[in-house]
């Protein structure tokens, strides 16, 4: 993992950057376009949006304005809860593609496991994948029981499960399950908006390497083979988040960070989320 250009190979053979930018709550218009342009200039290749974020148009605009060949970028979006179901998902996909202004999508995700609907939603994703409109399909916020159900009733297995994951919610059991099934794990909110940066162990490790607690946490994700997509709109922070490829945590340091786990969620619990 020597550079920001490092890629992981998904189980269907598609290559995906091991690190990216999440754009939740980044405002449509100049803010999103500037943020993505800065990120792309720094070498970010993965941009993660969703129809729910209401900034797909800005993402598409930034991609087109970047001058970077389309095949060198990896764009993800997601189908929202109120658009789930077979026909609804196909319609939602067309709308997302219209907003993005792209010919194809690299990764399409089911945003949340909406009870009674996500299997039909998944069938729609399988269709889009078969037709080559999408290079890879996956899920977000799925627990082990959701994945088991999906794997039992599908032709394609997800390439990825994107979940809330950080040292206070390390999701060890879910990660192990995904690894057994060759499903990559991606972390939204990998830094939890800095809620636990003052943990002494992070400070000590950061000091040792001349890094920040945020950089140590992102490095922890990478070394656990988790794909982190930290969000920031500040150029300095975007640069800092990406500057994590020139040091390596020891096995002991990884364990110390693992021990911070408290199974503490800051986002919604997929089992009690009000869809």
From TrEMBL:
PROSITE patterns assigned to the protein according to its UniProt record, in alphabetical order: ALDOKETO_REDUCTASE_2, ALDOKETO_REDUCTASE_3
Residues annotated to bind substrate: 111
Keywords on record: NADP, Oxidoreductase
Site (Lowers pKa of active site Tyr) location in chain: 78
One term of GO molecular function: oxidoreductase activity, acting on the CH-OH group of donors, NAD or NADP as acceptor
Ranges for domain NADP-dependent oxidoreductase: 32-261
Active site, per annotation: 53
Pfam families xrefs: Aldo_ket_red (PF00248)
Similarity remark: Belongs to the aldo/keto reductase family.
Stated name of the protein: Aldo/keto reductase
UniProt organism field: Mesobacillus subterraneus
């Amino acid at each position: 993992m020597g550079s920001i250009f490092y890629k992981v190979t998904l189980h269907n053979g598609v290559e995906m950057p091991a690190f990216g930018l999440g754009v939740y709550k980044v405002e449509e218009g100049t803010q999103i376009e500037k943020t993505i342009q800065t990120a792309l200039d720094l070498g970010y290749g993965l941009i993660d949006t969703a129809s729910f974020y209401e900034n797909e148009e800005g993402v598409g605009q930034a991609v087109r304005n970047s001058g970077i060949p389309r095949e060198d970028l990896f764009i993800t979006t997601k189908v929202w809860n109120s658009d789930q179901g077979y026909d609804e998902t196909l319609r939602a996909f067309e709308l997302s593609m219209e907003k993005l202004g792209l010919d194809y999508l690299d990764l399409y995700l089911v945003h949340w496991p909406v009870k009674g609907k996500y299997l039909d939603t998944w069938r729609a994703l399988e269709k889009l994948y078969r037709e080559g409109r999408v290079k890879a399909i996956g899920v977000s916020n799925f627990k082990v029981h959701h994945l088991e159900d999906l794997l039992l009733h599908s032709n394609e297995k997800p390439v990825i499960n994107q979940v809330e994951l950080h040292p206070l919610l390390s999701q060890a059991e879910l990660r192990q399950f995904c690894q057994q099934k060759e499903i990559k794990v991606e972390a939204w909110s990998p830094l939890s908006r800095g809620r636990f940066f003052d943990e002494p162990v992070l400070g000590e490790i950061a000091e040792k390497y001349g890094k920040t607690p945020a950089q140590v946490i992102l490095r922890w994700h990478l070394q656990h083979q988790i794909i982190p997509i930290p969000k920031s709109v500040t150029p300095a922070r975007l640069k800092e988040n990406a500057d994590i490829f020139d040091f390596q945590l020891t096995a002991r340091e990884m364990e110390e960070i693992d021990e911070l786990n408290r199974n503490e969620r800051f986002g919604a619990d997929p089992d009690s989320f009000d869809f």
